[in-house]
Specification:
This protein has four domains: 144 residues, Phosphohistidine domain (Glucose Oxidase, domain 1), CATH 3.50.30; 170 residues, 2-Layer Sandwich (Aconitase, domain 3); 99 residues, no CATH class; 125 residues, Aconitase, domain 3. It is built from 17 helices and 23 strands.
Length: 563
């Protein structure tokens, strides 16, 4: 029997099942159906794989911070993998397993293997995990608990752990400390603010977590904003959302508000008037928001999983690890981008999407983009698409982002995004028919500038009655659009603006029941949309979206700047 280097039991436990080895990272949110445990990411090589009851292996996770909620939902419903096995550090799925064990007594083992052991286990048909070993097809991999590293704590931290500031704060601090230890954090750090992503309703587990924390006396200690939720809070009944979904989704949002969170309900908190400043330590969740805050604003936050976001808000403390540290903000990959002459705004999400694939969990430095003079919305689209395909919490763009100069580590490997690769990316996100029934704008939430540009592109023309057109945006942007007449101009063209929800949380019947093909200007939603909606989702420019609104068609084409 072959033996290997000892595996670390990040979350200890016993399990057995068939081995399902994923060839690349996966986002559990938008990539796995929480009702079945099946891979629904149509762009993933193992699309359709059944993960429930399996020993699931992948290098690490990627994409959405909400994956921890999917893991908790699967675990509490009895549809989780038998075990999760990684070869690299991983936080999002791990946090879901930590919460399941810490709060609900449900064990989902999480293990980290050396590359040789990982490669050997990936070839096995099935595996058994015990407290001491992983046994599979002639392979024995010793298992040991993760080192019980001493975590420096302040007097205030210890007081919270001891329950002196309430049961919820004590539980939150236990979860933070557990994550800090598995991350190898040097300690904990104060944060000035938090942003909650766990208010999206992935299932009953999300509501159970929030209501449990509230019942234990949870109250945020730092100013805390909220992500987009899963219903238009004031209008979901009028929109005929079934009460079986609308009631718990609204209750989830209400629970966070009662704990002191600000009902901003936006996945683009950096568009709010009080965005973080450079160097400010914050505790944000939501992948696109984290990447924008670190990369464009120069603030500092790790990519915190759902549930850890509330724990940070309840304590004002976060693990001192990841992008909080200077060393972890350095670029470990340099990507030279061949920016096409005459490229339009669609190039930015394409670049982010491809850069995320290349970077994986490494912070990259992108070069060759300064001449394109990207604006805030361009960078928003790039960061969101990057966060869809990468695990890294930030990126640098030479000549554009504030920390790019000198960011690359000496000897960092180099990669290239060519014109041909951009064209391949465009085609990968444009698989679907020309006839469109839905145009989707606002993933992440649209800015007021995007709303105005869309109104200009429509030019007062009326929507084809066969098409539904929806812009999702935060309440602050909707108020601005109301004040300057943009909302009225969009409405005159038959375009609806909806608050609170975004395209990664929208459900039927707000998402039209008869839609078969969707056109979006979001690289993020072009990736997640097919799995989340069951529709073909195509990618185009804002101008393409406007033409589809009035004609019902989105011709399949390759932009001239990609030819």
């Amino acid at each position: 029997m072959s033996k290997f280097e000892t595996a670390l039991a990040i979350v200890p436990g016993c399990a057995q099942g068939p081995v399902v080895a994923l060839s690349e990272a996966l986002s559990f949110w938008g990539g796995v159906d929480p009702a079945t445990g099946r891979v629904i990411d149509t762009h993933h090589p193992q699309h359709g794989a059944e993960l429930a009851g399996a020993v699931v292996m992948m290098p690490t996770s990627r994409g959405s911070c909400s994956g921890s909620g999917v893991i908790l939902e699967l675990t509490l419903a009895g549809r989780a993998p038998a075990a999760l096995v990684f070869s690299e550090p991983e936080d999002v799925a791990t946090l879901g397993a930590v919460v399941a064990a810490e709060m609900f007594g449900q064990t989902l083992p999480v293990l980290r293997l050396s590359p040789p052991a990982f490669a050997a286990l990936a070839r096995a048909g099935s595996a058994r995990v015990t407290e001491d070993a992983i046994l599979a097809d002639g392979i024995e991999i010793p298992v040991a608990p993760a080192p019980d590293v001493s975590l420096p704590l302040s007097g205030n931290d210890r007081a919270m752990l001891a329950g002196e500031m309430g049961e919820a704060a004590a539980l939150a601090m236990r979860i933070i400390a557990a994550m800090a230890r598995q991350q190898g954090a040097a300690g904990l750090t104060d944060v000035t603010r938090a942003h909650i992503d766990g208010c999206i309703y992935a299932g009953a587990a999300n509501l159970l977590f929030a209501e449990t924390m509230e019942a234990k006396g949870g109250r945020v200690r730092v100013p805390t904003t909220m992500n987009a939720i899963s219903v238009d809070l004031q209008n979901w009944r009028r929109q005929n959302v079934p009460p079986a979904f609308g009631t718990p989704a609204a209750s989830l949002a209400d629970a966070y508000v009662r704990m002191g969170c600000r009902p901003t309900f936006t996945c683009a908190p950096y568009l709010l008037d009080d965005a973080p400043e450079a160097g400010e330590a914050i505790g944000w969740s939501e992948s696109n928001a984290v990447i924008f805050a670190n990369s464009v604003l120069g603030a500092r936050t790790a990519k915190h999983p759902d549930f850890l976001d509330l724990c940070i808000a309840l304590t004002g403390r976060a693990p001192l690890a990841g992008a909080f540290l200077d060393a972890e903000r350095r670029a470990r990959l340099v990507i030279d981008v061949h920016l096409p002459e005459g490229a339009d705004a669609a190039v930015w999400p394409l670049i982010g999407y491809l850069a995320g694939h290349a970077a994986r969990d490494r912070v990259p430095l992108l070069r060759g983009l300064a001449a394109g003079n990207p604006g805030r919305d361009d960078l928003k689209a790039l960061c969101a698409a990057f966060g869809t395909t990468a695990a890294a919490p930030m990126l640098h763009i030479e000549g554009v982002t504030p920390e790019a100069e000198g960011a690359a580590l000496p000897g960092a490997p180099r990669s290239v995004i060519t014109l041909a690769e951009l064209a391949t990316g465009w085609r990968a996100l444009n698989d679907g028919p020309e006839e469109v029934q839905l145009v989707a704008i606002g993933s992440p939430h649209a800015s007021i500038e995007e709303c105005r540009s869309f109104a200009v592109a429509l030019g007062g023309r009326r929507r084809d009655p066969r098409v539904t057109a929806i812009v999702t945006a935060g309440r602050q942007v909707l108020a601005a659009a109301e004040a300057d007449g943009t909302r009225a101009r969009l409405a005159a063209s038959g375009v609806e603006m909806i608050p609170d929800i975004c395209w990664c949380s929208i459900t039927r019947p707000v998402f039209p029941a008869d839609a078969r093909t969707v056109l979006t200007n979001s690289g993020k939603y072009a990736h997640y949309g097919p799995g989340l909606s069951g529709c073909a989702v195509r990618f185009g420019t804002l101008a393409d979206c406007a033409e589809a609104v009035v004609s019902g068609l989105a011709p399949v084409y390759l932009p001239g700047w990609l030819a």
